[in-house]
Amino acid sequence: MKLFLNKTRRWISSEMAANPHGCSLLRWRATLPFALLLAGCATKPVTQEVKIPVYVPCVSAMPVKPTFEVLMLGSGASDGEKVLAIARDTPLHFRYEGMLEAALAGCL
Fold first, then answer.
1. Alpha-carbon gap, residue 101 to 107, rounded angstroms
2. Where do the DSSP E strands lie in 5-106?
3. 15 CB contacts (<8 Å, ≥6 apart)?
4. What is the value of pTM for the model shown?
5. 33-50 pLDDT, tens digit each
C-alpha cells in the first residue's frame, strides 16, 4: 500500500511540476468520467411496453347442477322405475348440458 501511495505522490508531483499553472492532467482525468456520467443522465430514457399474459377466469359462475331422480333411486328399484326416472331426467339433463356448453363457449 505504501508503495502505491509513494508512486501516486510522485506522479502527482511530476504532473504539477510539468504544469505549474494549476491545470494539470490529473484534474482533467478526474473530471472526464464525471462529465461522461452526467452526459449519460441527460439522454432521454426509452420506454418499452411488455405484454405479460395474466390469468383471468373465463367463466364467472358455474351453472347449478340439478338433482337427478336416477341418482336418488335405491339399489332395489325395478327396471320400470329406473326407465321412468331417466325419462323424467332427460329434459333436465339437456338443459344443464346446454348451460355448460354456453359457459364453455364463453371461454373460446
1. 10
2. none
3. 24, 25, 26
4. 0.46
5. 777 777 666 667 788 899
